[in-house]
Amino acid sequence: MKNNKKLTSEEVKHVAGLANLPLSEKETKDFPEKLSETIDYIDQLKEIPAENTPPTYQVTGKTNAWRSDKSDSCRLLSPQEALANAKKTHNGFFVTKVKWS
Amino acid sequence: MELNKLTLTEAMDGLSEYKFTGRDLVSACLSRIKEVEPKINAFITVTAEAANKEASEIQEKPGDIKPFLGVPAAIKDNFNTKGLKTTAASNIIRDYVAPYDATVVHKIKESGAVIIGKTNMDAFAHGSSTETSDFGPTKNPWNTDYLPGGSSGGSAAAVAADETIFAIGSETAGSIRQPAAWCGVVGLKPTYGRVSRYGLIAMASSTDSPGPITKTVADARTVYRVIAGFDLFDATSADRPVSDSGNLKKIAGLKIGLPKEYFRTEAQPGVNETVMAAAKKLESLGARVLEVSLFDPKYAISVYTILQRSEVSSNLARFDGIRFGGTRDQFNEENKRRIMLGTYTLQSGYYEAYYQKAQKIRTIIIEDFNRVFEKVDLLLSPVSPTTAQKVGASANQAMFGEISDILIEPSSIAGLPGISVPCGFVKGLPVGMQLVGPMWSENLILDTAQEYEQATEWHKQKPNL
Fold it and tell me: Quick check: B235 and A42 CB within 8 A?
């Protein structure tokens, strides 16, 4: 069963926007075909009826996992450690881009 | 004696009998790394100075239980390792220095092992070749024109080339077993939830499982017992004891199923035959081998592809260049393709048709395994339909990994434990057989694999580097 509908470059740009992913010119050109190839493959699942089958999101059957309200101080990060890999910090905070709404 | 060639068991024995020191072991592995790395490229970071220093300062304290004291270990570069670069083989975190230890690393360190380096992998573990690494591909020690498999290709190649005594890998669907098979070493993928994922850079959170890559089955058991267990930091880790003798059983009388759908007609000539010879060997050791039927694994590829890409797109959303790492254009093409596909399948209007449908078929796959495990104790099949493929094979094959991992993906999706054990060669390249069992059956798998290994010589063969 083939998915005759190829992904268009507009759709690729839309998905890239959702994923906050800058694509190079080459990727923008190549991705419609490459992604369509994979989508064709995964469309095989349409062959299997599963309307009445419940989904399994977690294989061990664990439901809610609670922990006691304690922490292991030897494995906590200091603020300096937490900030150590940031490109930009200010007064002990991460610096982000400004978002005006 | 070349100390780097020792198994973990031999190394621990020799250390406890004072035949050599941890310093000797570390220095033997570091010299081997120096010698073969230009050909293999199994490591992204080698911590020679720190490892030498640590090894020379080892002091045994009475009462300390440090089973691996002085034993060199290599860690896949997607495990956070405090004070060391942890790159996941990706340019986007090329300079990231982990501020904390993953639980697996914490446990390995607590056990006294000396970390000698971080191993190469497909970038963010997105692949089955180690070719998508932003640090260049790793080569197979058996023939450097061939790939080691992946994503834990660096760990498997480092063990096969005797650059380390043992290594840690991680598997989402094949990333431990397939490189272990292609490099002729042992790889154990524990039950999902058996080993903590805390500090492992996430790929697909619902299947990621850390595990050992070693020279023998006994070594895999020893490392597994150190890293397994409940972890407060991983809410999905299983809160059940890791027992020594949970399901101890001898091969005699064991029922082993050969799933006929897993001996594929398109397999490389010789691979199925080699695994069938291993089945005969198990039979001669007293097992009852019978043919069984399982859900066609080709559907598992689709399920896995959807789940993995979806979870990847969500997990990699955190790489925003604010708290760590560079900008999102630094993901490589393979990473981007997976993020894109996952974002596509999770879009509103598509979620039910893809992600949810895949989770429903996951239920069908699990029920299928449950049904077959009422008839047999374990399943035996090839790990991969082929031996190692040539360098360059993964380029421009969007589904390269999925096809080479077709025989592994169903058990990964179901969360089941499995092992890859060397069982022969085809044209000079190793073949791995896979034993898969029900949830939490690691002991049974290890016992069976170990009996097979003791009755064969495959694991004693070494590549000529």
Answer: no
What token pair was written down for B46?
A: 């080698």
* Cβ contact, residue pair B336, A84, below 8 Å: no
A-chain residues near B343 (CB < 8 A): 15, 18-19, 21
Residue B322 distance to chain A (closest CA, Å): 6
Which of B191, B302, B364 is opposite residue A50, by nearest beta carbon? B364
Residue in A21, A67, A75 nearest the CB of B339? A21
Minimal-distance CA residue of chain A relative to B364: A53
pLDDT tens figures, B180-195: 999 999 999 999 999 9
The letter for the amino acid at B21 is T
Is residue A58 domain-resident? Answer: no
Domains and CATH numbers, chain B: 3-297+360-460 (3.90.1300.10)
Tell me what pLDDT residue B246 has.
Answer: 46
**Cβ neighbours of residue B285 under 8 Å, at least 6 residues apart?**
B251, B252, B451, B452, B455
Q: Torsion-angle region of residue B112: left (phi > 0), alpha (psi -120 to 50) or beta? A: left
Query: Residues B219-229: what's their mean pLDDT?
Result: 96
Q: Based on the structure, what is the number of domains in chain A?
A: 1
Is A97 within the bounds of a domain?
A: no
Active site residues of B: 76, 151, 175
Domain that holds residue A36: 9-47
In total, the C-beta contacts within 8 angstroms joining chain A to chain B are 151
In this structure, of B2-11, B26-35, B386-395, the range with the lowest mean pLDDT score is: B386-395
Least reliable range by pLDDT among A61-65, B197-201, B257-261: A61-65
Query: Average pLDDT of B14-38?
Result: 97
Interface mutation target, options A1, A6, A56, A69, chain B, most CBs of B under 10 Å: A56
ipTM of the complex: 0.93
Q: For residue A34, tell me if it sits in a domain.
A: yes
A69 in any annotated domain: no
Contact yes or no for A18 and B347 at CB 8 A = yes
Q: How far is CA B175 from the centre of its chain?
A: 5
- Judged against a pLDDT cut of 70, whether residue B402 lies above it is answered with yes
A14 residue type, one letter? H
Q: Give A46-92 pLDDT, tens digit per residue.
A: 999 999 999 999 999 888 888 788 877 777 899 999 999 999 999 99
The per-residue DSSP string of B199-267 comes to TBPPS-TTT-EEEEEESSHHHHHHHHHHHBS--TT-TTS--S---SSTT---STT-EEEEEGGGS-TTS
